[in-house]
Amino acid sequence: xxxxxxxxxxxxxxxxxNCENFWTRDLENKNLDVKHKKIIEEFNKGYQNNxxxxxxxxxxWKMQGDYGVPMQFSYNYFKNIGFxxxxxxxxxxxxxxxxxxxxxxxxxxxxxxxxxxxxANELLxxxxxxKNPFFDDYFFLEKNISTTPRWSRYLYIAxxxxxxxxxxxxxxxxxGSYYGGLQSIxxxxxxxxxxxxxxFNHQLLRSYVYLKSIxxxxxxxxxxxxxxxxxxxxxxxxxxxxxxxxxxxxxQSGYDLVTNFFSFGEMKDEEFSDFYNSKVVNxxxxxxxxxxxxxxxxFERTYKNKINITNYLKTDFKIEYLDVxxxxxxxxxxxxxxxxxxxxxxxxxxxxxxxKNSKIV
Length: 361
Fold this sequence. Notes:
Layout: H1 3-17, H2 34-47, H3 51-56, H4 75-81, H5 83-94, H6 105-118, H7 121-126, E1 139-142, E2 145-147, H8 149-165, E3 171-175, H9 181-189, E4 194-199, H10 201-214, E5 220-223, E6 239-243, E7 257-261, H11 269-276, H12 279-282, E8 286-292, E9 317-324, E10 332-337, E11 340-345, E12 350-357
Parallel strand pairs: 3-4, 3-7, 4-6, 5-6, 7-8
Antiparallel strand pairs: 1-2, 8-12, 9-12, 10-11
Helix pairs in contact: 1-10, 4-5, 6-8, 8-9
């Protein structure tokens, strides 16, 4: 086991040991939606008795990942990915076993154009995917510029946060953070930003390992019911990990920014309301969201809720920005609808929304 793998395993064990009821707590949530229940059950089944495997599959695993990187025939790709990985991918490609074909070459290039239009390509140049030690695959857009489908999304969002919503003194609460990729970009831009991350235990684990490996000098704090009082006085620049069940133990006096990207719309109505109408969110200075205009269209009941864009609007918050979320906008996925399996656009597009608290000057 190499040095990086040893560190990854050490941090994996460290988080599990310091996290209350790591393997069971999230399944006790009565409001847990069907999608995430299945993800957590699959996670426990695959990794509870195999920590070594868990430590190796932090970003890409059976149920979640970078959405698949399209096949690429270029010198830069083969040089960086290595002979063995390239050969395996080539065999899968030519045998028809390549999965996640939603994100093809054209979509990757479309996303690149969006990044250039918005100035986010500067971040892409600073943080190319092939320089990230946790990535095992990536798509080269130019000689020294590479990305993955999820990384392009993070770069676009990070550019928005960097320009309009965060600075080195900010406190930022993100609900549903996955492996912390977005946070890593912002933390490199603004080392002093204080980050609070709310998610399920297995997702927080990914963020903890990923971010503590990259930012070992920062204070990394795990919130649970036994140490919740410590979080009234979080030191500047800390990274704080909070299980979703402990959300209401957070300081309710107000954060500079509260964000959510795509998971609010996956929640049950009651759970969404508990989060979004909480004092924690209502007292924040800014809210920035990307979610579906209609979470569950009547002709394709994606999730069991009635959430749509009107549920995200707030009386005391002014709309600063509203538009279609542009990354992956033209993606088409193969799925079974009306009894036929075919490639189709998504039933509902996603929006990008910035709300500013009109009560706070």
